[in-house]
C-alpha cells in the first residue's frame, strides 16, 4: 500500500500503483490539512468575500459575481461545460495515474475541497474505476481543463469509466461498487480541473517506459557489439572519467559488465584500431539521453507533489491568492526534452543495424542472408528501422514552443504541455524500434555461434 501525503510521492510509488495496481491510503495529517482548507472556503462563502472561482465566473468571466445560492451550481456547470475533450481516450494506465496525481495534489491542503472528494478519488483507485478521458483538447495552461473535467464527471456519477475490463457508464460501476454520486460544493469543481495532472500523468507513464527502453537499448547494443566483433577498449573507465559525465560513466560500466567474458569482442588493434561512432560512442550518446531522463525525473517528481490549481488558500483562508501554478511550461519543456532523448536511442540503434546488414561495413554475409540473392535476409528490416527513426524525428518536434491564446485573450500564453509527450505514439514507435533491434542482435549472434 502507498500512503499519500501530498508531498512525498515518487516515480517508484507511481509505478507500483499504476503498473502493479497497488492500493493507496491517505495519511491522517494530510486529511487534516484538507479539512482546514475546506473550512476556510466555507467561511469565505459565509462572509460573502469575493474570491475567484468560489463566487465568480471563470477565465474571462472572472469579473462576474455569482449569487450565494448559485455557488454550487457554478461548480457543476463548470465540469459539464469543460468536459469537451475529443479523440481516442488516454490508455487506462494513464487515467489511473491521473487520478492518483490529482488526489496527491489535493492532499496538500491548499485547494479547499471536502475530505469526501479525496476519499472518493482514493476509492476510484482502490476499486479500479478509471475515468475514460479523451486525449485531445488541453492547452496545458489553466490546467488540463478538458481532460480533468472528464475525470471530475466520474465523481458526480456521469461520464464513462474503465471498469473490470470494459468501458461502461459511471453509474453502472457505482451501482456494482455501492458508491453514490457526489454533489459538488463551492470551489470543488475548479479544484478538480485546474491542474497539470493529465500532462504529468502521461509524462510519468512515458518516463517509466522510456527508462525501461533505455536499459533494454544497452543490452541490445552489447549484442550488436558482439555481432560486429566490436573493440571493447572504447568502454574503458579512464576514457569516461576523463570527460566526467556521470551518466556516460554509468553506461560504459554497464556495457563492460554486459560484455564481460565475451569471446566475440576484440581489443584495440586486433582487427581494427577503432570502431565507427555508433559502436564506439555508445556511452556518450546513450549517456546524454540518460542525462535528459534524469532531468525529466526531477521535474516530474516536483510536479507530482505540487499544488497546481488556482486560487490557492493559505493561512486558514486569511490569504487566498490567484496565481498561475496551473501553467504547464515546466512539464512541457521536460516532455519535449524526453522525446528528443528517446529518439536518439532509436537513431543510433538504426545505424548499428545498418552496420550489421551492410556487407561493405562488415565481414558477414550480405544482409545476414543464408542464401544471398535467393533470400533477402534482413534487408527490409533495416528499411523499417529507418522509416521509424525518420518518423520519430517528426514526433520529437517540440510542442512547448507553441502557444495560442484562449478565453478572449485572458489566457494569452499556454504551454501545450499535454501534447508534448506526443501521447504514447512516439514512445511505442521508439520501443518498436528497440525490439526490432533485439531481433537483429539475436539473429546475428545465432549466426556467429553456428
From TrEMBL:
UniProt GO cellular component terms: cytoplasm
Name by which UniProt lists this protein: Histidine ammonia-lyase
PROSITE patterns xrefs: PAL_HISTIDASE
Catalytic activity, reaction form: L-histidine = trans-urocanate + NH4(+)
Coiled-coil segments: none
Keywords: Cytoplasm, Histidine metabolism, Lyase
Predominant location category: cytoplasm
Pfam families: Lyase_aromatic (PF00221)
Organism of provenance: Mesobacillus boroniphilus JCM 21738
Leading EC class: lyase
Similarity comment: family membership: Belongs to the PAL/histidase family.
Gene3D superfamilies: Fumarase/aspartase (Central domain), Fumarase/aspartase (N-terminal domain)
Location(s), subcellular: Cytoplasm
EC number of this enzyme: 4.3.1.3
Transferase keyword on record: no
NCBIfam families attached to this UniProt entry: hutH, PRK09367.1
GO biological process: L-histidine catabolic process to glutamate and formamide; L-histidine catabolic process to glutamate and formate
Pathway(s) this gene product operates in, as recorded in its UniProt entry: Amino-acid degradation; L-histidine degradation into L-glutamate; N-formimidoyl-L-glutamate from L-histidine: step 1/3
One MF term in the entry's GO annotations: histidine ammonia-lyase activity
